[in-house]
Amino acid sequence: AKAPPPPPPQERTITAVGTASLRPTPENPRSSDSIRAAVRAARATVLTSAFARGRARAQELATQAQLPLGALLSVAEGTCGPPYFYPGPFGEEGTFGPGRYCGNVTRGVVRRDAQGRRRVIRRRTTRICRIPTVSVSVTLTFAVA
After folding, report:
1. CA–CA distance, 42 with 25 (Å, rounded to integer)
2. pTM above the 0.85 mark?
């Protein structure tokens, strides 16, 4: 009978997480187009920062373990905190729909009646813009020599 082949040697790795966030500053905070451009620019900046922080953390771990840090093997992007800055389905993509950061919101105007209870006496529609905080989390896996 043949013996089964030995299992392949386990590759030693170090995995570290890098996170970063930034609140973009659009040229015109009342324009969806301006906010969209600022979010794109912030995302690129935050991604670079998250990678740098993940690599620095991996180097710290390797140094503490007295191991040389090798090549980057894999990258995974995850969520960083809640997926939105304001209740709604789109979050960083825009709370009024994908790519839409400005829209109309209807709110009730409340007054107290003769018995002291709060009553909505009319509704008011106003245009608002919401600027998200851009957050990124990356998980980096490095080989260890």
Report:
1. 9
2. no
Cross-strand pairs, 17: 139
Separation of alpha carbons 38 and 32, rounded Å: 10
Residue 21, beta-bridge partner list = 135
**Residue 50 near residue 20 (C-beta atoms within 8 A):** yes
- Smallest Cα–Cα separation from 65: which of 22, 16, 103? 16
Q: Note the Cα 114 to chain centre separation in Å.
A: 48
CB neighbourhood size of 93 (10 A):
17
Q: Do 124 and 109 touch, CB atoms closer than 8 A?
A: yes
The answer to whether 137 and 15 are in contact (CB under 8 A) is no
Residue 84 has pLDDT above 60, yes or no: no
